Every structure is written in structure tokens, then in C-alpha cells.
Amino acid sequence: MLTLAWRNLWRQRRRSLVTAGAVGTVVTLSILYYSLGGASTNSMYQSLTEGTGQIQVHVTGYRDLREFGTLLIEGAESVRAMIEASADGAEVIGVLEVPSLLAGEDRSRGIVLSGQDWTPALLDRFIDQSLSAGRFLEEDEFEGIVLGEALANALEVGLGDEVFAYAPGTEGFGAAAYTVVGLLDLLDANYEGRAAFIPLGAAQELAAPGAVTRFELHYPELVRLDQDTKIATVRDELRASLNDYSVESWQELNPSLVRLLDAIGPMMAALNIIFFILAGLLVINTIYLSLMERIHEFGIIISLGANGRKVMSMITLESVLLCVTGAVVGTGAGLAGVAYLSRGFTFPGLEEYYASFGLNPVFYASITPKQVLFSIAFALATGILAALWPASMAARLEPVEAMRFTT
Predict the structure, then answer these.
(1) Among 193, 221, 249, which residue terminates a domain?
(2) What is the pLDDT of residues 29-50, one digit of tens each?
(3) Which of 225, 256, 369, 389 has the most CB atoms within 10 Å of its CB?
(4) Which structural domain, as residue segments, surrounds residue 22?
């Protein structure tokens, strides 16, 4: 039966090739579409977690607190040691954000001065992506500051110029002078206009000795959303050991982004279904025309004892073979496209648009074996469903009338 179905398909070679090509094109588009969705999802995940970490530790109720002193995690080093004991290999970063007035010679601006103790790996990535001029800060450097280019322009300062930070009402010196040693070109222009970094020790000396406003836990090896499987477990372990603090995963810190990520999968599936419905209509047309050309033959087959189920199986097999042929070619083309796009690509003219959402404008195509299997399964389902109507027609043929039928 398989040999017979294959022969029947290629009686009208051109028509079958067009139909198989259409199915292959849809499978290719489906795989590429899944890979672009994966690229967008992973870009959002990576941009977010590189900036904020997969888990953060704050004082309890920090969202409702307004005074600087109430936001502080005192005895930061002891808390850090407790976090590292349960963090399962995370890179732990202490961050102290100080509301400050930053002033140049003639201009000033209110900002949140950020002091943190970067890990070497995260610092290297940040420098590669963002440092546009000068250098970054040394860990024990208390006199240097790095500014966003937009903030430096607003203060009318450049490399080597001096700026003054005022942080009244804090627990440290409350004022300090810094020399601009580096400038940052950040993806988000709004953030660039208020970005100012100093080492954690310098920020503590300025505003809160021995304290931080939060700890961030980074897992640099987690670059795709589907790798983010152990974060919930680590979070729960930290909550058990840090009863006096708020421990939140990146999903809890950014619920709106989580809803967006959750919506991407159903959106991709819905569009794929539309693609395959259109391909299915073409398959129905091909199978129907093939049936009309062979009604006389089916009449003979039925008269020789073939039942309706046998006839339906023959036609369904032809449809499935047609779709499988297209799916094999389409899968190969789609995976080749994913391999090429996985090296990195951009959407020309949309770099600033993506940057406004904090996304890296360079995307890396990504697809899972499950998504490839879904695309192939959609093609098989298309072949089966597209054959149902023509096959049921053939199964109900009366042998005598069918043998008299002429096209």
C-alpha cells in the first residue's frame, strides 16, 4: 500500500511538488518563527537577569519604605555569608543605592548613586557592553566615579573632571568629591541620564558603613529561560534561612514581564496553526483532484472487495506521505536557518526601539527539540486532517457508478 500511495502521488508530479513545497515552506517558517520567539524570550531573560540577578534579598517590606535608613541591610558581610551558604554557586553582589545630589562645576542633578562589588565575570561583560570612554573602577578606589554619557553631558563634565556628591540624612560622611574616570554608553537613554557608579566601599563610606540596600544573586551560566529551573528551589532555601529578610526571584520582581513571556508560547502556537490551516487547504485540493482523476480505479478496487476503511487508509497515506516529504525538506531548511541566525542578528532600524525596553538589539536564534517536534507533528496532523473529507468521499463510492464515472 505504501508503494502504491507513493506512485499515485507522483502521477501529477508538478502538483505534488507544489503542495509538498508549500508544506515544507510552512514547516520552515514554523521552525524559524519558534526560533525568533526563543531569541526574543532569551534576550529579555538575559537582559533582565544580567541587570538585576535571578534572586534579590531586601529588608522585609522594602516596597512600602521611604526613608533611606529603613532600607538598609545592616551587618552586610554576615548576611552575605548566610546567602552564600545556601546560594548553590551563585555570584553574590552587594548593592548600596544612595539618593544623592551630584554636581559639576555649574550644574547638578538628583540621582541614585549606585555602589556595588562587581564579580569579575559580570564586570567584564558590563565593560564590554557599556564602557565607551576611560576605564572602570578598581575595587578599592574611593576617589573615582563612572557616569552615563547622558548624565555627564547634563552636568557638563568629562573624563578627569571633578564632581561632588551630597547625601544628607545618611549615616556616613554625607558628602564626597569624585573624579570622572569612565563614561558609559547604555542601551536605555533614560537610564544613561541618571547612571552613576562607585565601588561599594566608597558608597558605604558616603552613606551607610557596613550596610547595603540589597543583595543580588547572579547565575551567569543561565542564559536561556528554559535553563532557569533551580531558581525557585534556591529562593525557598534562602527564605528558610533568612527569616528576617525578603527573598524574591526575578519573576516576583517583574510580574509584568513574566506575563509577557508566558504569552509568547500561545501566540506562536496560534500563528503556527494558521500557517498549517492554509497549507492544509492546499493539501485538500491536491488530494481531492487526485481522487477525482481516479474514481474509476477506486470503483474497481471496491468491487474487488476493498472496504471503506481500506480505501480511506490509502488516501490518508497519500496525504501523510505528501506532508512528510515536505516536512523533511522544511525541517532541514528551517534548522539551517536557525544555525545561521544563532550567530547573532539584528532588526535594522529597530535598535533604539528594543533598547528603550532594555533589550539587547542583537538577538540569537534558539529553538528546542520539543518545538521542532511540534512543527513536524503539525505537518503530520495536517496530512491526516486534510485527507478526511476526500477519503470519506472515496469510501462511500458505489462500485458500479464509480466505474462508469468519466472525468
Answers:
(1) 221
(2) 889 888 888 888 887 888 778 7
(3) 225
(4) 2-47+258-404
